[in-house]
Write the structure tokens for this entry.
Amino acid sequence: MNLQHLIASCKTADRKAQKALFDGFSKTFLRLSFRYLNDRQYAEDACLEAFALIFENLQKFEYQSDAQAEAWMKRIVVNQSLKILRKMKTLLYQQVLEDDFTETNEIGIEDELSAQELMVMIAKLPDGYRTVFNMYVIEGYTHTEIAEVLNITEGTSRSQLFKAKAMMKQSLEKQNCRTGL
Amino acid sequence: MQEEQNIKYKIENLSESEFADLDMDFDDTDLWNRLEARLDEKKTRKPRILWLWWAAASLLVGVFFFNNFSENPSSQVLKSDKRPLKTTKSTPKKEEVIRVEIKRRYETKTTKPQNELLEEEVIRVEIKRRYETKTTKPQNELLEEEVINEQVLNRKQLDYQLSRIDFQPKLDSISVTKKTIVYEPKFKAQQVTVVDFPIIPDALMKRESFAKRAFRQLKSFNNEGKIDWRELNIEPRNVWAYLERNFKYDTTKIIPNVK
């Protein structure tokens, strides 16, 4: 059954269709949520809330394409993850002057790192950095959108991203020093 | 920008085995059970909410009907005396028009100062009375109350009206007119008498002397209550007396015989 039919069936509260939709996206969403929360239990809670919201709001949702439907659901998962992060009150943002990072936007970390190593590095980032990094780099939010969602300024969002990248680079350099590269 | 796209691509294309290596392999069976339980709960919650709304609405309707259509003995206006009152057309200069309002109030303890009790503004005449008709019906049904609004009475009519009044204090007979401020009664078996003296420009002196006489007589019957004599030459022109005793016959004495 394709996604369009699944969504149509879910609108009629068909439990089998709901289960199929859940099976199709649960792992992706759990990983997505885990990237933000860095905690399995919290990630599961966020996904539970997100799926409940998805099934509740499917009535209002108008299907256009698979990508659009998936992006809509992912947004709900991200929002729920951020909600839990806010509850934990671990989101701290550090303002950096714009001059500090406009010149050095590219820091060259991706050439040397594998996907797994990248994931580990992202997980090690502080919550504020990790959140902005995930939203901007992986989910493709703009700084304006991030600022709106996180209730921060665009400058703060940019500085968080810069700091996150810098921290990852620093970590990579330390790693290289240890391995003698 | 390119760097960011590459990072995104790498992360989005992680294989299942790589996720397992990263300890990001989730067992979603338990999560589905929790979600299913929650979805079932939501299903049952909807009808419950509807039922609650329905109950609240029916309760409101019930209260509305109870308040508006139930027979409240304190405000019930029973059949009025069928005997019509004769009203004569009279010019204010020739006949002194007197409005009388007699009300009853019964005691409950109140903290309001006595002066506040005197501040009721009543323009219309309201005579309420209770009496028992000589029938075989139960006592509650025998009580009748007559309300006569805006009656302008001359002396004869007033005498006639007052002669028919029988003051039998009943605890359930506290009634309220629209323009009456309601205070909790202070005195036992209290009666409020309001004598309204109309302003007739040519008869101000006569009015004042009458009022003085009226007060003297009212005072003689006043054992416990308070009399408020307002300035008679200006408005408001109501004279109030709170009397403990029934002064049905005595009231008639204070009515001036102006022709």
Notes: The longest helix of chain B spans residues 29-69. The radius of gyration of chain B is 37 Å. The CA atoms of residues 84 and 148 of chain B lie 11 Å apart.
